[in-house]
Design a protein that fits this description.
oxidoreductase; L-iditol 2-dehydrogenase; 17 strands; seven-stranded mixed β-sheet; alpha/beta; Rossmann fold
Length: 335
Amino acid sequence: MKAARLKSLKNLQVIDIDKPELNTGEVLVKVKAGGICGTDMHIFAKVNAFSHHLGHELSGEVVESKSRDYDFEKGDKVVIDNATNCGVCKFCKNGEPEYCSDIRNLLMEERLSFQEYVAVPARSLYKFKDLSFQAAALAEPFTVALEMIETADVRPGQEIAIFGPGPIGLMAAAYARKMGVNRIYLSGRSHSQKRLELSRKIGVDGIIEVDKEDTVEFFKERNIELDRVLITAPPYTIKDAVSILRFGGILTYIGFSFDGSENVKLNFNKIHLNKLQIRATHAIPNRFFPAALNNIKKGVINPDDFISAEFDLSEVQEAFDYTLNNETVKTIINI
């Protein structure tokens, strides 16, 4: 089968490898589409050593199942959760699989990739109907946005800010608007005009171009105190969130840093006296695939707005080069 592999920085090749063999409890999936994630781009352009397998936002079609516990048949359309909880630890037994102490990470196991077939645990699959494979590939990042919304306890009528106009931030804004949040503010850099324009279409109430104006001053000048801040931006922006949250406000953060910027100084007197809460979110394993698929189907996010470009597997190098050098929301690889 054909598979994309990262050979060196910014150098992807499509190679021939054996089709994966199925173990008991696994399902063989013919991959149909996959989205390029920001983590994929970071590995491609900057890290390389993290993994040679890129691609985990995948949708496809069941080819064969060796699972007795899950009902999958040939031809079922599915999306793939890239991590699986164990089901037997104290957290799983207590109904808290998101805190599983023995998570199986299919990405770290290099079981997932932009390739023709993948063999994955049946419990990692979610069926869908009435969506294209390309639209369904948006479900994985949407699940991350939905977990951020839940973790931050976003409610109707609130004033919220979202730092970072990437796909997750934009999806969070779209869902928050659907929920009935009062006002939504989005921050990003001025070179992200396509993403900022999409945020306007979604219905955000204010945009802060952080390379042109100070985020904290933007809110202070307007006497805006935020109920929630959702951060999909670099860790240093947490300092700004602490400065603009109201008494009892909550911020939630998702993202990796690989260059030392993950170390941030914070004013814990302010956090303590203002009873602020900082909540991390990771979405591994993920509980929100059914909700994400359902909300895509209902039009909460429009795939046509989020999918900026599509490439075939044979063009995977061109796809990553294009995404690196052009402003996109989401690039899809068709397989």
